[in-house]
Sequence to fold (1588 residues):
Amino acid sequence: MKKIAMLGSGFIGRFYADSLHGQRSKDKIITVYSRREEAAKKFKEDYGCERFTTDMEEAIAGADVDVVCISLPNNLHEAAVMLCCKHKKAVITTKPLGRNAAEAKRMLLAVEEAGIFNGYLEDLVYTPKFLKAYESVKNGALGRILWAKSRETHPGPHSDWFWDIEQAGGGCILDLGCHCIEITRTFIGKDIKPIEVMCWADTQVKPIDAEDHSIGLVKYENGAIAQFEVSWTFRGGLDLRDEVMGTEGTIWINNFLRTGLEMFTTGKATDYVAEKSESNAGWLFPVGDEINDLGYNHMFAEMFNCMENGTEPRETFYDGYVVNAVIDAAYKSAKTKLWEPVQLDIWRGQSGLSKESHLVEYDADHYLIKEETTHYGAKKVILKNKATGKIEEKVIE
Amino acid sequence: MKKIAMLGSGFIGRFYADSLHGQRSKDKIITVYSRREEAAKKFKEDYGCERFTTDMEEAIAGADVDVVCISLPNNLHEAAVMLCCKHKKAVITTKPLGRNAAEAKRMLLAVEEAGIFNGYLEDLVYTPKFLKAYESVKNGALGRILWAKSRETHPGPHSDWFWDIEQAGGGCILDLGCHCIEITRTFIGKDIKPIEVMCWADTQVKPIDAEDHSIGLVKYENGAIAQFEVSWTFRGGLDLRDEVMGTEGTIWINNFLRTGLEMFTTGKATDYVAEKSESNAGWLFPVGDEINDLGYNHMFAEMFNCMENGTEPRETFYDGYVVNAVIDAAYKSAKTKLWEPVQLDIWRGQSGLSKESHLVEYDADHYLIKEETTHYGAKKVILKNKATGKIEEKVIE
Amino acid sequence: MKKIAMLGSGFIGRFYADSLHGQRSKDKIITVYSRREEAAKKFKEDYGCERFTTDMEEAIAGADVDVVCISLPNNLHEAAVMLCCKHKKAVITTKPLGRNAAEAKRMLLAVEEAGIFNGYLEDLVYTPKFLKAYESVKNGALGRILWAKSRETHPGPHSDWFWDIEQAGGGCILDLGCHCIEITRTFIGKDIKPIEVMCWADTQVKPIDAEDHSIGLVKYENGAIAQFEVSWTFRGGLDLRDEVMGTEGTIWINNFLRTGLEMFTTGKATDYVAEKSESNAGWLFPVGDEINDLGYNHMFAEMFNCMENGTEPRETFYDGYVVNAVIDAAYKSAKTKLWEPVQLDIWRGQSGLSKESHLVEYDADHYLIKEETTHYGAKKVILKNKATGKIEEKVIE
Amino acid sequence: MKKIAMLGSGFIGRFYADSLHGQRSKDKIITVYSRREEAAKKFKEDYGCERFTTDMEEAIAGADVDVVCISLPNNLHEAAVMLCCKHKKAVITTKPLGRNAAEAKRMLLAVEEAGIFNGYLEDLVYTPKFLKAYESVKNGALGRILWAKSRETHPGPHSDWFWDIEQAGGGCILDLGCHCIEITRTFIGKDIKPIEVMCWADTQVKPIDAEDHSIGLVKYENGAIAQFEVSWTFRGGLDLRDEVMGTEGTIWINNFLRTGLEMFTTGKATDYVAEKSESNAGWLFPVGDEINDLGYNHMFAEMFNCMENGTEPRETFYDGYVVNAVIDAAYKSAKTKLWEPVQLDIWRGQSGLSKESHLVEYDADHYLIKEETTHYGAKKVILKNKATGKIEEKVIE
Fold:
């Protein structure tokens, strides 16, 4: 059983608390910090905490506090993490880790030097569907991974600070792209190095300084390619989809808008339907169990089990740092319009990989390009002559 | 924190254990009973129980046992329940409660006389999608409920005793229909009396004495109708779908085969995909989180919270008894080919309801039948003259 | 190229005309009859006919008329058919053929005596998806058919006469059930005799004399079972789904509400979306090509090709008669609450079938019940001992 | 009624012929040219043509030929078009128009100088779903279009020449990207100028010289962005999906793999299921009506109607030329890794557009960023102060 200090009492802090205190759980938020006393107090009451405070260090330093959960705006992460280091408290931090790789690197080095448990709360690599899909990818069901895409788009975040580039550090790339980058990186392999990034970003709709729509490509050292699609201009709810292509298979994940629960109502219903849903009449697609389906339960279970067992969780500050480095390259690319290298001063995975050759031999003289049955019933192969390079077709049946 | 004695170590017992010991949970199975020593021992080891036994009463009577979880074949439920009454242990029982209403009634009366906590483990009214849908129904999003259907079909159960009519007490109606009946009854209203049942059942494929396919209709006192479709002959996996129609809306739930995770694989994968999946190549549709998506987590959380709070869970032996009474009528109807009344000696809901009248007034002289826009752009109403009963059409725009 | 006299200028007549005059077609509606001059005239103009009339016989008797297309209310079919017989014109009639089997039988006998081409316009066995599915069923992809279900529900028909039991002859069973009965009958086999029907019907919502919701089961001589679900009370659009179960497979068809085109709009759109859609904001699911997707194109192509080739179309008045006979039994059953026999004075399919035995031999002493892989990796078979009837489980790997 | 000379007798020629001779159509292929006599002869027999030839000019020049349909490998388009110009025959050509913009431009100038009817056979902007979606986009249902994406991936083409870069002119960008580029261009507006292209392309799997996987972005003058995803390495069938985002809505189209027909079979079926399907057991997703669902029927109907009416079809050689120009930029970008300008010597749309400003005024002092209901029931607005640029949150209810 772990006692938690929660920093921040906003939208994400409440989602975390719902999960932490959820189904028969052992763990307990004992104190909550918020910049606004009123908000801190309401949170304390809503979640039955023992106390609240508007002094961040007080919340962290409490003798009975086992772990600090940071649910603050991006610009406050670093200060909070440094206080955790000072007081030697285990720390878990919402995403993104920093506003940029420089911040993230300082945090990473600090927690490692302090020797404290550090967890990066990237919930979307803990959704039940991701976990199931990832298990299949690891088991080789998809063969060699060629491409992984992750998309998160919705009509924009709930809190004001997201829209302020100083506090947030960026727009939808930082807010949503951090998810997509870690999801696709995990499918491709966390030990494979992200090499360079091409990114388009624009402010198409909202009266803000940051981007509200972006598409990016991330090239990995082994030739695999990752893609992110993020936006705060999407209409229709929260679109949260991943796709993976491998040489032996394909995976499609829909985490939110089409999950097997469909409701039509003429509109007499007035209840809250789902995070970022845009209407409460007509066809609606609520998810059954937001807390679980968005990965919070599996994420916190793994984090706390690791804390107890003294092991490292799947997502640490190191992962947060790698993600920030990719994001930095994306922002740079959006400006320079060039493929920008990913700057990784710290890299703990494989190096020096090259794109493997994957020729499939058909016979002594030919490589196989494709085998197929046409709609005229013919079975044929398309071959490449090894010597001449000529493409040939051969009906075999 | 509750200490549990598990009776039974088979398929369902293991599902229960996975959930009971799941995500950071407080509760613990301390002892397990099985008729076969080997099975009991393996279960003990797999789930880290303190002990095992082949003596059912010993398992139940343990001084440290707070609650007994019955995961036994249907024909053993009653004996186990009676022992729980004798030793005054809280008891939760897998579905169906009895093989018939007579058994169920004896169990119900016994636990109530003994004054012990009793929970009926009908997991499918605790699936995240059901809970979300049910909330909308209660909030009136669908208006008055007219029809509710539940379908559970798959290629047949995993354990031998299901196929033996003596141990099981019946075929797929008892095994699967119990779910469907409680699901639809809950949507229609648990205080609305089921009145009569029409049921078709047949043994179409399997070399067994019990039915392997059945369709039934259950009429409720307020005019609503429930429908169940159950089979052990379905090909394609586990088909678990519910539908509800109300005067103001519709709900479609797909709990298993189409939930937003889709995978194509050429077949190099050899891993277990999902309960009752039939293949491991081609397009596959694994669920993310079987334990949660089948309702086990929410069910046990509610049961244990109620135990602690001294309140009654949503599903008690009384509900199990009502379901058994409906099933009895279904079996009788399948033989007599008549609508058979549901025999409910014990009924704790509303009585004497009649089908309400729901005329919608258009103007002083007319009822409204329908309002619509045709594809020629005309807006029109179809009316019924109150005095003459004549149907009239009126273009209003 | 065929010249057509259209009888009726309402909703269905216009759908037919859109198809008949559609994509590069050869055929032409040259005259149109309607009881209301204004309606006939407008139809003539909209579809570029040569003439119109309010005299039905005049329309039929025209020397240049090759074929008569009946798109009239149900109570006018018989008179129109008799005039076609008198004038020896090929006739194609909308569904249902008659208001009951007696009417249908008279029409069937009359067209056969007159020796005229007769087609029954059951478009839903001509939808592209039905045709594709049916081809697979015929090829044996599903093995022996066990169950076929068809569902058609929507918020009620467009024209006033449907709501008037005298003109329509019934409610949603006659209007929609006729589709479902022919769809399921075709999947099971048109030469297999429908034996008896159990039907529930009620007027749950609308202020009308006919039923607005009904569920029915039709038993076939070979043990297969058909199911129809029809309603005028459904909310959410036009729900048009079929399902088939066979010993080797399963088919699910969604003809209308989920076909791969999904649109979210905040509501600035004001255009007609699809037949029987209920809203024009939020998530909408228009079909791409109503005329084709509802089967009209393939149906008329087959009808006119058969006329030219002197062959019989797949759907003749005989099929319409069989459907009416099943409907008669359904109406009777709804009143008597009994399984009612289907009265078929004329039957041209197989007779005397019994339910086949389908035991699968495992070895000399056992039948196979089921083979499976559990989630513990065990491969096992469940067997029935031929001699003792005992159920046994055997782990084989 | 039109008489057609078909050039080419391969996969696409047969698809075209099935459509041209399909449902009750007036038009007729009277002659067919193929380089291989055997293939020409078989085509003639299969489609009941009057004659065949291995001399291309002979096929084109026939006195009775009204229109020439080019279904040849890409490298033969130009020669065929020039012969049509010489003989003043209407010409319709499969996609892509040329192997590059230079070829396309020569063909465009030639047909316009010759004054002959020219149609570009881009079927995927004629699919029923595209047509329906496009109608909604034109009606404003989605507001201003921000982004359009089209994806076409499958396991590779059927004929050998596609895999030979000399004959084909390129890999999957040319083969599949031409579809995606025209689809997205049409959604964004065919009068909006494509400005520059960023493209990633690689040969990840196949032993060929051309690319087998590519992702590209196309920037339009009004700030809208198009995206294509094309591959010959996809496993799972033919993935054909489009997505559009506008300020007021969203469209998702699935043209092939999920269209509402789902079949599970244990594998006794051996019949051809669908174009580019990869298996015939397990869960299969055949389309109902390939010919219609892939747009061929609506495309040819429009082409021939325009020929008769003397009007221009929606897709002409000019469109083919624009598409080729975008593809040229894509290939260049894949090599230079830069955003490459689209070279359009001929441009007939709008020019000089800039990204419009779309600020939404909240009150005299503020722009509206977002309005929302949180899950705590609060209704709030997020605003931007016009003077200070500061982001503010205001609870309004």
Notes: DSSP finds eleven helices and 19 strands in chain B. The first strand of chain B starts at residue 3 and ends at 7. Residues 1 and 308 of chain B are 9 Å apart (CA to CA).
